[in-house]
Structures are given as structure tokens and as C-alpha cells.
Amino acid sequence: MDTEFLSGIFLKLLTGLPLTLNLTALSLLFGGLLALVLNLMRASRVGNALASTYVFVFRGTPLLIQIFMIYYGLASFDAVRSGFLWPFLREPYWCGLLALALNDAAYTSEILRGGLRAVPQGAVEAGRVSGMGRTLVLRRIVLPLAIRQALPAYSNEVISMLKATALVSTITLLDVTGLARAEVSATYRAVEIFLCAAVIYLALSLLVTRGAGWLERRLSPYKFGVSA
Amino acid sequence: MSIPAIAVTGLHKSFGANAVLRGIDLKAQDGDVISLIGASGSGKSTFLRCIPMLEVPDSGIVAVGEHVIEPRSGILTRRDKITARTIRSELGFVFQSFNLWPHRTVLENVIEAPIHVQGRPRAECVEEAEALLDKVGLSDKRDAWPVHLSGGQQQRVAIARALAQHPRALLFDEPTSALDPELVGEVLKVIRSLAEEGRTMLIVTHEMGFAREVSSRTVFLHQGRIEEDGHPDQVFGNPVSDRCRAFVSGHFQRNR
């Protein structure tokens, strides 16, 4: 095994790590916010229909196609090219981030919806009857309970987004996978290079799993038979 | 007489075609301990839930102290909703199923509303909460999680939580119905001590012996109306209404 080559490649791929992490973190952030909005919309009938349609479309089509539609598709509209968002929408980075965030929002909103449905009605009533307004009930009772409930499923979504960022390499971005593809086309040593890339993703996934486990124990110690 | 702690007039409430409350009038003066009895479906729990607007009455007037709400066709205006929040913070409500917040420790459950609703300083709330937990016999459970407590302990925490709001009156909605029989006593003991302190309380209950012994007044509900209302000795011993007589005697026979 050519360890010198491997370590050289490994170090090179690591320079793509900031972009991979950046896309993961920001798409989770914006996707998460949008997911919260989608769930709040569900309070009304029209909003509920809109949110369902949104989830149906973004969960029902491949992320790769969503990336292509945004990166290649939007540019074919004059209105977009002359619009004030064009400085962003012509950049592959922003197109990739937008697609990832929109896609993440669809999945996260369903995870959050499950968490919200699991909030016991009695806990909500206890909040209302103690004089809390809607926002306070949401902030102090509903969301904390929903998030605790949704956390295990959400850690899957985080890992899934982490790996999904690899798709932005198809629109010229040089994340870990993008760099790996460039190296492969320069050296034709696909197995070693992609293996290095896979190891990086595997290590990140391990971190997410451990982090989520830690957070869950910290937020809900009562589920693990530990007293405070 | 001064303004009653709770005054309800002409309360009506239907769920669909099912008329649950059909004109209820009830006044509770400060210091009254009123037990509400009646068969399941007589409307006693719905009545109790209408006072803090957990159920919005179709019509009628609910007044807690000087705060008055008069819903029109089951709808609260924005002003009513603000009044409802004031009313809620003046009442302590204890649920049948305790409804503690599972993600907060015992102490955190008790200090939650005083800090976040009433805006009182944390140190003061903690000190008071510790005294309240001591009073309900749970000072050693201060940092425990609700799921690790027995039903009786959870209900006593819920009572401490209600007391922490400095309520003008306490409302109990079948506080012992969800408990194993051997845990009922510890909760009744706490409620009895509150009655002896002179707290104003409305208690929906199936514990007839307890109701008779603790309350200053007993109200019997039947099909959404008050059928009998008087001193417990009269309501249990010599009821005017035949239905009340049948209900009460049925109960004491069963529990003999």
C-alpha cells in the first residue's frame, strides 16, 4: 500500500472539509428554521395544505434534481437573471446551499411534526392554566418536549445531510467529494481516493452519533434512569 | 358580602349535540370548601374546566374576584383572552392526571410559573418552592424527575405547583381518581390540611367520605344542572332530591 500517496490525498481532501461542514451546518440551520415555520403554518387549513404540498414535492424528488433545477434551471429565466438575487443565484455555493436547505426543511419538518404530536396535551393544559400565553407555552413546554422526542430521528437527518452535501460536487463545488473527484480524474486511482473520502465522512458520522447521544442524555436524563 | 372568590352565572356548554352544562349558578366565598359530586357525565369536570376557560362556555358569566368573562356563543374576544390569563394565574388547578412537565425536575415544575408568568425573582421562588415541597412531604424529592415518582407523589408536586402561584382559590379535578387505592390517602391528607388552613377550594371528587368530612358545602350535579346544594351533612344525610338520595346511598352501599 502506498502510504505516502494515501496520506497526501488525505491531507488534500481535508482542505474540502470546511466547505462540507459549512454546507451541512448552514443547511441544517436554515432548513431547521423553515421546518419550524412549516409546522407553525399547519395551524391553519390553508397553511397545512401548503406545508403538505411542500413536503410532498421536496421529499418526493431527488435532491440531485433539485440542485440541478436551481443551479441550471433558474438561470434560464430572464426575470431571475435580472433580479436582485442573481448575484447569489449565479454562484454554485448559494445554489447548492439553497437546495440542501429546502430539502432538509421537508424532512426536518416531518421529524418535528412527529415530535410535536407526541407532546402530551396535559402538559400543554398545565401551562395554559398556569397563566402562560401561547408563545410561552410553545417556548417553555411544547418545543422543549418536541425536540427531546425528535432528537434520535433528527440525528439521522444530520448524518443524512452531511452525506448529501457530496452532491454539490456535481455543480463544480470543491467539497471533500468534489476534491476527491478532481484527484481521481488527475491520477485515475479511484479506489484509494474515494476510500479516503469515505473515511472522512465515516469519522464525521461517528462524531454526530456520539454528539446526539450526549445531547440526549443531557436533555432527558430522566429517560436513562439517572437522577438529577 | 364582599366580592365572591368565584361566581358563575348561567353557565351553558355543549359538545356538539350533547348539552353538558345546562345553566349552572355557583358562588364561592373566600374560605369556602365546596365539593362537587355527581355521576360520570353529570358535567362536574366540564364545569370546573370552564372556570379557567380550559373549556370555553357557550354562554354564561364566569367571575374570579373582580375579573369577569362573559363568552358569547363559545367565543372569547381578545380582551376575554387577556382576562382569562389573569384568572388562570389567580387560580391553582390540579388535574386528575397530574400533568407535571416531564422535562423539568420537581423543583423546576414548582418554580416555572412564578418565575416565567409572574416574573418573581428566582431566589425567592426557590425558597418558597422548597417550603411548599416540605409542606406536601416531598422536600427530599426536590431534584427528582416526575417519571421517577409515584402517582401520589406526582399529585402532591402538582398541588405544590398550584400553591406556588399564590392562588386565590384552588380547583381540584378528581385529584385521586388516577391513583392506586393505597396512594389516595396521602393526597387527601394534603388537601385536608389545605382546607384546615382556610383555603378556598372547589373539589370535584368521587371520594364521598372525604367530601362529607372536609367540605363546607356539597353540590350535587345531575345532567348539567345543580340538583342539590347545601351543607354536606344535609346533602349526604338528608337530601331533598330523589336523584341525589339514590346517588349518595348507592355510593355508600358500594363502599361499605
Q: How many DSSP helices of chain A?
A: 11
How much helical structure, as a percent, in the residues of chain B? 25-40%
How many distinct beta strands of chain A?
A: 0
User: What's the CATH topology label of chain A?
Assistant: MetI-like fold
Structural class of chain A: mainly alpha
Number of separate structural domains of chain A: 1
Name the features.
heterodimer, A: mainly alpha, MetI-like fold, 11 helices, 79% helix, flat, B: 256 residues, alpha/beta, Rossmann fold, 6-stranded mixed β-sheet, 39% helix
Q: Can you characterise this structure?
A:
The complex is a heterodimer of chains A (228) and B (256). Chain A starts with a helix and ends in a 9-residue tail after the last helix. Chain A has helices at residues 3-14, 17-41, 45-60, 63-73, 78-81, 86-89, 92-117, 121-129, 134-164, 176-187, 190-219. Chain A is mainly α and 228 residues long. The longest helix of chain A is centred in the middle third of the chain and has 31 residues, at 134-164. Chain B is α/β, with parallel strands linked by helices. Chain B has a single domain (6-254), classed as Rossmann fold (3-Layer(aba) Sandwich), CATH 3.40.50.300. Helix content of chain B is 39%, strand content 24%. Chain B contains 9 helices and 10 strands. In chain B, strands 6-7-8-3-9-10 form a 6-stranded mixed sheet, with helices on both faces. In chain B, strands 2-1-4-5 form a 4-stranded antiparallel sheet, with helices on one face. The longest helix of chain B has 16 residues, at 181-196. Chain B is globular. The mean pLDDT of chain B is 92.
